[in-house]
Design a protein that fits this description.
Layout lengths: L3 E3 L1 H11 L10 H12 L2 E2 L9 H7 L7 H9 L4 E6 L1 E6 L7 H11 L10 H11 L12 E2 L6 E2 H11 L3 E7 L2 E6 L6 H4 L8 H16 L2 E2 L14 H14 L2 E6 L6 E4 L3 H8 L8 E3 L10 H8 L21 E5 L2 E11 L4 E9 L7 H18 L3 E4 L6 H4 L10
Parallel strand pairs: 1-10, 15-16
Antiparallel strand pairs: 2-4, 3-4, 5-6, 7-8, 9-11, 10-11, 12-13, 13-14, 14-15
Length: 411
């Protein structure tokens, strides 16, 4: 197939449509959550909760009536989603369990041998879960401290996490960020547990994972960046080989976008989305608040080149070195980024705090943009369950302060 040529505007619209953001808030309920996660493969998890956790922020931008309870139910009651490792810590559909067999086997080889301190207590841990049901590390009386992935930790935690990594356990539920584990066999259907790895060769595994990661974004280039991290056994050489195979097979299509320095790739299976975008006239732009770890932002250099929007997550930077703030959320309007803000929560007064606000340099908010932002923040307040917004600093935000609605009043 010949290369696809797109204008910058068309490419933006396609990637946003693929991401459920052109327009945002166009899906509803559990079906909307599942539709989105199945399309992109996984959404990334992070425990920080400044104004919703990362996966919740991802979904509230796409699912009109999203509440965190919907995600919890899909994970821990309906068991249609799983906590697992994909793009780092992630959430993905339970039917993808067989495809991660290689990751689980690698973890078993790494953690389940006599030289690992947790190995000695595994029989007792299994017996406790068998007898008592789902448990977290604080429920187990094994207090020895051992070396672990990030830092020394209790041996009880090391044992549970080891069993989780190799697939013997799953996360049954969470208490805030504390994980409670149970046997995978109690919660994953036998037909999935017993399904052989669909990718019997390493080459097939690489091809599957590369294709999955491209689908996680929609469009991407063959260039080192965070979009490609966390794929076992795949460095630059393996990635280039997989991309060549997928292009030859017709599973991938090459896309040339005006003004882009490198060609891009998209899945052939997503061609109908592109055709819909190219055949759709302009739609009234809406505004959406995005997560720092949103799939759309996985490769920030790519987004900077395509959208002209420079965004860095600065939580790990010392305060003096931050350009903006600790936890800053981008705002999308139509097919462009228009602003970013740093949120906070006043739980005593049930308020969302806007600590800082930064418009993009070329943005002059007109009446339509102001109305879209107001609707966006009303929706965001509903997602958070807050009653009002408090603005700190000197920034004037007329869409929040000049409407006569006390719940959105500046203070």
């Amino acid at each position: 197939m010949e290369k696809i040529s797109l204008t910058n505007r068309q490419a933006r619209r396609f990637i946003l449509a693929h991401q459920g953001l052109w327009p945002p808030h166009s899906r509803t309920g559990k079906s909307g959550v599942m539709e989105h996660i199945r399309r992109v493969g996984c959404i990334q998890f992070d425990p920080l909760n400044m104004a919703g956790r990362s996966p919740e922020l991802v979904l509230q931008a796409r699912v009109a009536d999203f509440q965190p309870a919907i995600l919890d139910e899909l994970l821990y009651e309906d068991r249609r989603l799983l906590d697992g490792w994909d793009k780092m810590m992630s959430i993905y559909p339970v039917e993808d369990w067989p495809y991660f067999q290689r990751r689980r086997e690698a973890a078993l080889s790494r953690y389940n041998h006599g030289k690992r301190p947790a190995a000695a207590i595994l029989p007792e841990v299994r017996a406790e879960i068998e007898r008592r049901g789902p448990l977290s590390s604080i429920d187990l009386d094994f207090d020895q401290t051992v070396d672990w992935a990030w830092a020394p930790t209790r041996i009880a935690r090391a044992a549970l996490e080891s069993m989780y990594y190799w697939g013997e356990l799953v996360i049954h539920h969470k208490v805030n960020t504390r994980k409670v584990y149970d046997f995978a066999s109690r919660h994953i259907p036998p037909e999935l547990l017993n399904t052989p790895d669909p990718n019997p060769t390493e080459e097939q595994f690489h091809d599957w994972y590369i294709l999955r990661r491209i689908g996680g974004i929609g469009l991407i280039w063959d260039k080192a960046g965070d979009a490609w991290i966390g794929i076992p056994g795949v460095k630059s050489t393996q990635r280039k080989a997989a991309l060549a195979r997928l292009l030859e097979q017709g599973s991938l299509l090459e896309v040339q976008v005006e003004g882009m320095s490198l060609p891009l790739m998209m899945r052939a299976a997503d061609l109908p989305v592109l055709e819909d975008v190219l055949g759709t006239k302009d739609i009234a732009p809406r505004a959406a608040i995005l997560a720092p770890l949103d799939n759309l932002l996985w490769d920030r250099r790519f987004i900077e080149e395509l959208f002209g929007f420079r965004y860095r997550w600065e939580v790990y930077k010392p305060a003096a070195e931050r350009e903006y703030g600790y936890y800053v959320l981008p705002i999308l309007y139509g097919n462009r980024f228009i602003a970013r803000f740093e949120p906070g929560r006043d739980r005593k007064n049930n308020a969302l705090i806007l600590k800082n606000w930064w418009w993009e340099a070329d943005v002059e908010p007109d009446a339509d943009m102001q109305a879209a932002l107001r609707a966006c923040f009303e929706r965001f307040m509903g997602f958070l369950g807050v009653e009002n917004i408090r603005i700190e600093g000197e920034v004037a935000l007329p869409f929040l302060s000049e409407t006569g609605n006390d719940s959105l009043a500046e203070s």
